[in-house]
Amino acid sequence: MRFSKRFFVFTILIVFALIWKFNNWNDRYAAVEAFRGAALNEDVLYPLMSKNLNDAGQLKININGETYSNSQQYAILDDGLNPVGSLEFVRTIMGSSAFMSGEKSAIVQITNDIYEFTVGENVITKNGEEADITVAPSMRKGQIYLGLEDLCKIFGYEYSYDKAKYTVDIQYHTKPRLPAAYDLRKLNRVSHIRNQGSKSTCWACASVEALESALLPAYPHTFSVDAMINENSQGDESKGGEYTKALAYLLSWQGPVEEDDNVESKPVHLQSAQFFDSENLDEIKRAVYNYGGVSTSIYASVSTSNLNGSISYNSFTNSYCYNGSAKPNHDVVIIGWDDNYPAKNFSSNVEGNGAFICQNSWGDGFGDDGVFYISYYDSNIGYQAVAYVSVDTHNTYSYIYQSDLSGWVGQVGFGKAWAYAANTFMAKADQQVEATGFYALGKDTTYHVYFVPKYENTGSLSEKVLVAKGKVEQPGYYTIKFNSPQPVTKDEEFAVVLYLNTPDTIRPIAVEYEAEDKVVDLTDGKGFISNNGLNWEHVEEVKSANLCIKAYANNLVEVYDNEE
User: Fold this and answer.
1) For helices 42-55 and 2-39, angle between their N-to-C axes, nearest 10 degrees
2) Is pLDDT at 563 greater than 50 in this prediction?
3) Mean pLDDT throughout 153-174?
């Protein structure tokens, strides 16, 4: 009985303890639920969710039944968890012109219809008339993003979105056609007319003007032609230049700089460019439509700066068509076209109508205030054409690692379409490497990008980790973002490894080496090339060249464990 009484008393105490514990736990549970209730406010929760989902690449997009590779995040979830697309998404996927018209506004042109969007506004204008949209445009790292549902509506594409799976489906039959006539001057996307005088600087004028056009009208600049010439690693104004010389200067971040030293502006960095040739005039039109002015080389058949002595030029109609075999000797900027420009306007017989509208660098006294028409049937129009497709005005990357200040001079390979290349660098501080840059030397180039931390020797390259892969349709220079930042510590060596497969070429890797007026420092690089990704050759030793592979980095972002 004594044991039973003790047991009974002990049981009573346990019951009271449980009751007290339950009440105390209930109070704490209520407090937690109250906190959770506050956190579930959409204004707080959704931005956190969108960041995590975007970082994890959870948004999936299917276009006509095929999965869209969104590795560069041209489409993301906004702070309201709505699928939105960047202007580059509009250009490359939707098939239309799109550009920033102000720091917080953008224009989308679908053939002859012009739509104006403003950040934070649920109202747009179509050819000046107002219309409602579902998702207000938003900004992210200096870029405007537009609701995919709204875009599909104005394009006439079918759209559906599975919120549970974060999956967008877009269906369309045909993309919008290009307009028959297009003139960047009407959209305030043409820079001022320069006058090169007697100097051989047309290449620099054309490059600078095309770059300025790519930024207009949102970001007006007047860049220095003299700086591009005098501060260029290739130097020597008297020898003239070409587009590769301009690209070497811009892609290495040696410039551009403002013409007026008293003008303060944020750094402008060229990150990507595309190349075209005279066999692809429709692609050049699309590039003008999408990105602004496109520089090109032509043959100017007289040495004077007015062409009046040339049989190829009609000064009454400001039209030009050269039919001959002479090599190009002059650069201009294509700023538009007119498919119906009369063939009879040219001084010689041409096969048909149509002309590009071109900006020259012979002052506004030439042609129509510095502008003239070049026939589609000109022998050289479109030769060495370059479009500046990605110009960064928001310092997306703070640091650049490179060993190719003279830029693309030649290419190396192993007699086949594919090869491996690896460039090594030493970290200047505790940083995170976020992207790489390289040249694709032909159409439909497939790339795989790998990262190697703590590089010691070529044996380290076997530890490479895939950080990006994809395919680029046009030849050009591309900055490719990694799927996640790669941290490095100060003085740590790291490597970027590149696999390129470029059809119809036997040397897919771009390099710089000494040639003509190009002076190359081989001591600033340590790169390697490989036939199979296993056995490596030191490119500075076997080819006397530096690899054209760059890396881009930012300061290290601290990430704290959830428990902390």
Assistant:
1) 80
2) no
3) 96
For residue 304, pLDDT beyond 70: no
Q: How far apart are CA 126 and CA 87, in angstroms?
A: 17
Mean pLDDT of the chain: 90
Q: What is the pLDDT of residue 306?
A: 66
Q: How far apart are CA 200 and CA 202, in angstroms?
A: 6
Count other Cβ atoms within 10 Å, centred on residue 134.
10
Q: How far apart are CA 506 and CA 524, in angstroms?
A: 27
Cis before 176 (ω within 30): no
Strands across the sheet containing 546-547: 410-412, 509-512, 546-547
Look at 480 and 309; give whichever has higher pLDDT: 480
The two three-digit tokens of residue 211, written as one number: 């770059």
Q: Name the CATH code of domain 397-555 (choices 3.30.1490, 2.60.120, 3.40.190, 3.40.50).
A: 2.60.120
Tokens of 11: 């049981």
Name the pTM for this structure: 0.89
User: Which fold is adopted by the domain 54-171?
Assistant: Copper Amine Oxidase; Chain A, domain 1 (3.30.457)
- CATH number 3.90.70.10 given to 181-389: yes
Average pLDDT score over residue span 480-504: 97
